[in-house]
Amino acid sequence: MSFPDIVPELKAKMPELRGRLLANQPLGEFTWFRVGGPAQVFFMPEDENDLAYLLQNLPAKIPVSVIGAGSNLIVRDGGVPGVVIRLGRGFNEIKVEADNRIAAGTAMLDVMVARAAQAAGIAGLAFFSGIPGTIGGALRMNGGAYGGETKDVLIEARGVNRQGAMRSYSNAEMGFSYRHCGVPDDVIFTAALFQGSKGDPEAIAAEMASIKGKREKSQPRNRTGGSTFKNPPGQSAWKLVDEAGCRGLKVGQAKVSELHSNFLITLDGASAADIETLGETVRQRVKAHSGFDLEWEIKRIGVARA
Ligand SMILES: Cc1cc2nc3c(=O)[nH]c(=O)nc-3n(C[C@H](O)[C@H](O)[C@H](O)COP(=O)(O)OP(=O)(O)OC[C@H]3O[C@@H](n4cnc5c(N)ncnc54)[C@H](O)[C@@H]3O)c2cc1C
Q1: CA–CA–CA angle 109, 105, 130 (5° rounding)
Q2: Cβ of residue 215 lying under 6 Å from some atom of ligand 1
Q3: CB of 133 closer than 6 A to ligand 1?
């Protein structure tokens, strides 16, 4: 299964592009589930200007998607038409600034931001150590854990829209709510500035160790997409899934984790369709059992296999 190769055409249109464009790049390896089809075009921009240049010159009819660490993501088996962007080296800077602030590029892993804050004695960002995504994903998902959320610590983020225009968004302009960011979906975040408070490096290290310990006991740590469904107001999704008898449920080679019933895991030979069908089966059973409509937290991109 592959898409028509439009890379030569795009390269001809964008002679100043510096990042690499690849045709039909398999995406499974970039996701925690380790499954999914290819990107029609895969692009890793060199830096923010390179990203903006591509977006300014890419024909409007070509869709664009962005992926981070793929820790909350299903890439469907038929792959993703258009351009899939993954930020890399040029978006990996991290800087401790005055007044207990940290600036980070959005390709940086959340845990690296937590570690930099700990080393600098900046409290308030330790929760990032438990989220296995990038800062870009944390901004888009309002990632949070153990009482902290991205919205609590963000001062501002920068982003580039589909037309290639760059701008900053204040915390209020991000329109954050539970696992949601209100900035239009086409915006690709490139940088973020966080506010912490003065803390003791040893106490922060102990907090991070405690988060790690709790996670290791309660969550699968590979071939999963994290929380599958959002918690309905006042409810726990895992409990609703459990009560509907879905813990351990299997569809094809995808399974509801025995360890945490709001996590799905993939076994050898799984397809994205297995995961999605399993998720939909769980949703139906929960609806039938308790009446709740579970909403997917995991993002799904691409098309089903033809
Ligand atoms: C074991 C495990 C535990 C987890 N625990 C938690 C937890 O405690 N709390 C929590 O909140 N989440 C948790 N997650 C889910 C996941 O880690 C978070 O949602 C994370 O923020 C996703 O980041 P990512 O870089 O992996 O994004 P991806 O999964 O690659 O993408 C998720 C979404 O973010 C968008 N995105 C990614 N980068 C950018 C960017 N630069 N600009 C704009 N949009 C972007 C994508 O388009 C997509 O819509 C867990 C996942 C796993 C596998």
Answers
A1: 25
A2: no
A3: yes
Find out whether the beta carbon of 195 lies less than 6 Å from any atom of ligand 1.
no
Residues tagged active-site: 179, 227, 297
pLDDT at 221: 81
- In this structure, the residue with its CA closest to atom 14 of ligand 1 is 226
For residues 183 and 162, give the distance between their C-alpha atoms in angstroms, rounded to a whole number: 12
> Is the CB of 114 inside a 6 Å radius of any atom of ligand 1?
no
Closest by CA to 137, choosing from 298, 264, 6, is: 298
Model pLDDT for residues 135-164, shown as the tens digit of each residue: 999 999 999 998 899 999 999 999 999 999
Confidence of residue 306 (pLDDT cuts 50, 70, 90): confident
Q: Are strands 80-86 and 38-44 parallel, antiparallel or unpaired?
A: parallel
Expressed in angstroms and rounded, the spacing between residue 279 Cα and the centre of ligand 1 is 18
User: Residue 67 Cα, ligand 1 centroid: separation in angstroms?
Assistant: 9
Please indicate whether residue 113, judged by its CB atom, sits closer than 6 Å to ligand 1.
no
139 CA from centroid of ligand 1 (Å): 9
Region 191-207 average pLDDT: 98
Of ligand 1's listed atoms, the one at least distance from the Cα of 149 is 11
Q: Residue 32's closest CA among 139, 134, 146? A: 134
